[in-house]
Each structure stands twice: as structure tokens, then as C-alpha cells.
Amino acid sequence: MTLFKRSVLAAALLLSSAVGVFAADVRAGDLLISQTWSRATPGGAKIGAGYLTIENKGGAPDRLVAVSGQVAGKIEIHEMAVNNGVMTMRPVEQGLTIEPGKTVTLAPGGYHLMMMDLKSPLKQGDKVPLTLEFEKAGKVAVTLDVQAVGAKAPSGDGGGMMKQHDHSGMKM
Fold it and tell me: Which member of 51, 103, 105, 124 has the greatest number of CB atoms within 10 A?
């Protein structure tokens, strides 16, 4: 194989792997859902969390109203906050609004999907199918990529904007 052919093959492989990175992005109406991930759970854990980013490219708000999946007995949209040094976590009862032209990130330390009564532990490398239900965009199938225990971002490196959500030193 000539050097040129090897270079073309290498470039094709790089492009195909780059396309794979973006293949997880899901469009639903005016919404773009990306960076769908979760953390591995220790054996015996009955609770896990899911994270993702929702961008509203339209001119009207939409609302994430429900989440379902076979992975858990119940999945809720939750908000975690720290007020006066006290961590609180609660379901978002009326759903999570995504305003037009805005992006909402579900990430550690903030909004997240709370998966309760897990059917089995989440293992690094697993793919977890979920269905998100939006007021306008309807039902949308997504897949969470399970990262390492304690990961702070989809790549597991803790870099970028996700670092601002690190509350690992917090007492619970």
C-alpha cells in the first residue's frame, strides 16, 4: 500500500470515528439533545443519575415532562442545589422548561435524571436506552453512555464547563 493510500485510509478512519461522536446527538422538532451520559454505579446501588444537554433552536419554549426506561423502576427529573451549605434534592414537578434559543444542561450538582430502583448496576461502557417526553417535541429515544464511577463529564475527564458542578467535597 502506498503512503498516499495509507494517508487516505487513515483520514477516512478519523472521519468515521468523528462522525460516531456526533451520532449520539438527537434532533426532535426544534430540540437538539446531546452529551447523554451516566456514571457507573457500585454493585447493589439502587439509584443512578443521567445527564444530558438540551438546546432549543426554535422560537417557542418546550418542556421535558417525563422520562422512562427499562433500566429503573422509576425515573424522575430532579434538581440538586446547595443553600446555606445544605444540599437539597427534589423532583421538578412541572417539568423542565427549555426556553427558545437557550441550552439546559443536566449535569452533576444541578438538574439530572434520577433513576430509582435500578434493575441492575450501571457498568462503564454500558448503553442505557431512555425515552424523554417533551410537551411539544413528543417522545424521544436517547441512549446514555455509562462512564466511570465518579466521572464529572461525558468523557470522564472532569474537564470543561462540567468542573463548575463538582460538589465532591460536600457533606450529605
Answer: 51
Phi, psi (deg, nearest 5) at residue 156: 80, 5
pLDDT per residue of the chain (172 residues) written in tens, 0 to 9: 554 444 433 433 333 333 334 336 999 999 999 999 999 999 889 999 999 999 999 999 999 999 999 999 999 999 998 889 998 899 999 999 999 999 999 999 999 999 999 999 999 999 999 999 999 999 999 999 999 998 888 864 433 333 333 333 333 3
In total, the chain counts a number of residues equal to 172
Domains of the chain, earliest start first? 25-165 (2.60.40.1890)
The distance of Cα 15 from the centroid of its chain, to the nearest Å, equals: 24
